[in-house]
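Here is the promised in-class demo. Please do not try to memorize the tokens; focus on the logic of going from shape to residues.
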């Protein structure tokens, strides 16, 4: 989240197209969009970039359902039970915003819920632009806008789905921001951490506990989080961005289209994060789905740690068994650390961020070729490669092809003669010599009959 930039908040009742508009403004399909109302629950943040003009932040929010007394009323199925939490998230966003984009539906026309929300917005000392969405072309604008003039806000007609008038909207929104707030720059890059796991393992609770904010909606209802939501915060002078993701169930159990979008977004977020926290529920133990997620992270060489949450709810003997079971799964990726924590009590939370920073630093390691080859000599002399088909593979030299994660390439006489067990021995040797304890590592072998690898 660009917290130094002025922010504009998208506000409106459910299903008026706020998330589609958000995606259009930031030019990226980050927010999940669907015809079903109530898909968005937590607030999502992005940046509006305009050529030659100052940037500003944009915040997508869940749909608000107010009655004539400005009290929360029951919403559609998608947000039922979350109405109060969504309003609290929107109120927090508006309290920090430079302006509000009040989004209404030009096809539905002016509804009582829109009027009630407009009354609420008038009480705020903040500029408001009424964005009449789902107006497909200038020829429809006058007719669609007519009944919304009664709200007393300046109006603009757009179509988020088809892109009509979006350029004009970005400029109109920018003009709402006080000049002294424009020109702010993005904050320096922060350590980006994604939380991944099954539904209801406590990912949102962990983010709230670590960030010191009630930033994510927390519920016992599995699947509360749908979008992959960024939460920026600073702790002890260090900047972090947590990405809360939707819980991932087995593919065979997913029939809902919204959940499919959520799961895909979760997996993409893990791939883009600096470090992923694979979160396991201590009360349920290690499940088959946890194993699948672990295998995916290891296969893709995504930097990650395992966080066993809710340890306050189980006896110590059960916890030891869960840790042992988890460690057994790491037979081919023993570098992955395991932390036992409780978002509810705070136990073990102080270890997460320092460990994440260490993993990030290890991923960025770059080792000179001369130092690598001295290390290779040490490893090979300690334990020579075994004979395969009557011959021992000869190692010529070693180089680091890339970092993030560290990738090492050995040039050998015959790569097919390097056994998997010896490859793991070499990886362990490199980890020990260069103190790469927890980052993923790739070790590749290429056949070469000349010492220069040509």
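The designed amino acids, position by position:
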């Amino acid at each position: 989240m660009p917290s130094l930039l002025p922010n504009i908040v998208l506000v409106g009742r459910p299903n008026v197209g706020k998330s589609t508009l958000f995606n259009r403004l930031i030019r990226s399909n980050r927010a999940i969009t669907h015809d079903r109302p109530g898909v968005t629950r937590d607030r999502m943040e992005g940046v509006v970039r305009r050529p030659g003009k100052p940037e500003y932040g944009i915040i997508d929010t869940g749909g608000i359902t107010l009655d004539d007394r400005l009290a929360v009323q029951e919403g559609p199925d998608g947000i039922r039970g979350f109405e109060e939490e969504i309003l609290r998230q929107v109120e927090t966003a508006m309290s920090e915003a430079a302006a509000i984009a009040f989004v209404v539906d030009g096809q539905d026309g002016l509804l009582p819920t829109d009027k009630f929300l407009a009354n609420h917005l008038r009480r705020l000392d903040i500029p408001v632009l009424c964005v009449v969405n789902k107006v497909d072309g200038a020829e429809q604008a006058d007719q669609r806008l007519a009944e919304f003039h009664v709200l007393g806000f300046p109006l603009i007609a757009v179509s988020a789905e088809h892109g009509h008038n979006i350029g004009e909207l970005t400029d109109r929104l920018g003009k709402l921001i006080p000049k002294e707030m424009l020109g702010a720059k993005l904050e320096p890059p922060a350590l980006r951490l994604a939380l991944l796991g099954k539904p209801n393992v406590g990912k949102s609770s962990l983010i709230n506990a670590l960030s010191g904010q009630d930033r994510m909606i927390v519920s016992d209802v599995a699947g509360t989080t749908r979008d992959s939501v960024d939460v920026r915060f600073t702790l002890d002078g260090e900047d972090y961005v947590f990405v809360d993701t939707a819980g991932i169930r087995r593919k065979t159990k997913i029939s809902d289209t919204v959940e499919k979008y959520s799961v895909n977004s979760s997996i993409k977020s893990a791939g883009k994060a600096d470090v992923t926290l694979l979160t396991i529920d201590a009360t349920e133990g290690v499940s088959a789905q946890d194993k699948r997620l672990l295998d995916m992270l290891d296969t893709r060489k995504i930097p990650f740690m395992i966080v066993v949450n809710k340890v306050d709810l189980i006896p110590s003997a059960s916890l030891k068994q869960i840790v042992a079971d988890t460690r057994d799964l790491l037979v081919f990726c023993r570098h992955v650390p395991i932390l036992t924590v409780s978002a509810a009590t705070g136990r073990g939370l102080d270890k997460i961020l320092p460990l994440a920073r260490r993993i990030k630093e290890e991923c960025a390691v770059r080792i000179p070729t001369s130092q690598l080859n001295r290390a290779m000599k040490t490893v090979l002399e300690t334990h020579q490669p075994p004979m395969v088909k009557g011959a021992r593979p000869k190692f010529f030299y070693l180089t680091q092809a890339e970092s993030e994660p560290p990738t090492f390439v050995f040039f050998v006489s015959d790569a097919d003669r390097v056994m998997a067990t010896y490859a793991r021995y070499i990886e362990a040797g490199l980890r020990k010599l260069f103190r790469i304890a927890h980052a993923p590592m790739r070790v590749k072998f290429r056949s070469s009959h000349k010492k220069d690898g040509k």
